[in-house]
């Protein structure tokens, strides 16, 4: 808790408000355009999958102030989401897209092949006894923060920092070496992350062509390489 800001794990009772905040703040994002039902289901899938970092900030009156989503083991977390809720998410997305032609066109152009492939792997995994891939040689353990969402009228009030402080603590408790996050280059979030000790680590482009800036945060010595985190409040 920081002042009147209370941070706790995101639960089923938060799904509607948290997903609505996501749609409000990131209305340019593909997921945010997929309808309220899909977004609630997406948030539920995220929270239920193992290794989720899912936090909400509320004030002393219970008003939602912000949300953080992430994962301590992103690849395992995504596989679990697909295995547990993938078919339902695809069905909701297809139903919503059927009534929204522009979204349907975007879905076909940028994501259809990848989503169909993911569903095929999901079906195959249900009929296979093969173990989950164990990965290659051990390297740095890298977690991911995918979304930092703060209500517009509370930005700059310490809510984002309070959420990230707890997310960083969860990363350390999980034994991670570092955390990464990405943010659109046209959002005024870069200075905020740098102030908190995150280091810009170049630009990247999503599969659908959306540009992002990548940031990294060192949790353990050696996790980030030379330089570590720049000075900043902890």
Shape, principal axes of CA atoms: globular
**How far apart, in Å, are the first and last alpha carbons?**
15 Å
Which residue ranges are poorly predicted, with pLDDT under 50 across at least 5 consecutive positions? Answer: 118-135, 223-227, 230-234
What about the largest sheet? 7 strands, mixed
What is the succession of H and E elements? EHHEEHHHEHEHEE
Biggest sheet, strands in spatial order? Answer: 1-2-3-4-5-7-6
Overall number of strands = 7
SS-derived structural category: alpha+beta
Average the pLDDT over all residues and give the rounded result. 81
Number of helices: 7
Helix proportion range: 40-55%
From the alpha carbons, calculate the radius of gyration and give it in angstroms. 18 Å
| Percentage of residues in strands | 15-25%
């Amino acid at each position: 808790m920081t002042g009147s800001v209370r941070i706790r794990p995101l639960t089923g009772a938060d799904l509607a408000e948290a997903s609505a905040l996501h749609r409000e703040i990131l209305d340019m994002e593909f997921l945010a355009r997929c309808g309220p039902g899909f977004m609630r289901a997406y948030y539920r899938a995220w929270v239920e999958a193992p290794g989720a970092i899912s936090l909400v900030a509320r004030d002393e009156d219970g008003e939602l102030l912000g949300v953080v989503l992430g994962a301590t083991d992103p690849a395992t977390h995504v596989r679990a989401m697909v295995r547990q809720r993938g078919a339902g998410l695809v069905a909701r997305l297809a139903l919503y897209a059927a009534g929204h032609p522009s979204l349907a066109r975007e879905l076909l152009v940028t994501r259809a092949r990848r989503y169909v492939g993911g569903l095929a792997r999901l079906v195959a995994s249900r009929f296979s006894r093969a173990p989950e891939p164990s990965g290659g040689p051990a390297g740095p353990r890298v977690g991911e923060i995918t979304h930092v969402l703060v209500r517009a009228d509370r930005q700059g009030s310490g809510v984002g920092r309070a959420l990230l402080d707890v997310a960083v603590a969860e990363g350390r408790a999980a034994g991670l070496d570092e955390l990464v996050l990405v943010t659109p280059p046209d959002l005024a979030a870069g200075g905020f992350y740098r102030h908190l000790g995150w280091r810009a680590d170049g630009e990247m482009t999503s599969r659908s062509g959306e540009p992002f800036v990548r940031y990294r945060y060192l949790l353990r010595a050696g996790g980030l390489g030379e330089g570590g985190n720049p000075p900043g409040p902890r």
